[in-house]
Amino acid sequence: MALYENVFIARQDVATTQVEALTTQFSELVASLGGTVSKKEYWGLRSLTYRIKKNRKGHYTLLNIDAPAAAVKELERTMSINEDIIRYMTVRVDELEEAPSAIMVRSAEKSDRPGGDRGDRWGDRPPRRERPRFGDEGVAAPSIADTGEEA
Fold first, then answer.
1. C-alpha dihedral over 39, 94, 80, 42, to 10 degrees?
2. How far is Cα of residue 83 from the mean position of the Cα atoms in its chain?
């Protein structure tokens, strides 16, 4: 049997529980056709680069599949029929990675940062230099000569 990685994007208005149900439905389909799904990763609701079928965001999911070609073909046919799936892509690979994908590693690193996803926006900037104000000690009020106006 061949090894495949499948990523599909579900519509933004579908609930997370429905995406999980779709994932289990697809993995059961592959299992019924003689394959196995070794890893399922839900990457979350992410922004799309461009609008697809009037959607600006989508629920991303990764499946690592060890199955015959006929099972993958049936999986792709089922995904193309399903209205909740915006896009899907299946790639044949030489070996499946058991470690978390790069997307999951990156999101874990983001959550470890103290500023959250956006980082510490103002922590790396030098403090704003205050201008002296009139009435402060050692600062004289401007005179008419300083302003350039005539009396």
1. 30
2. 22
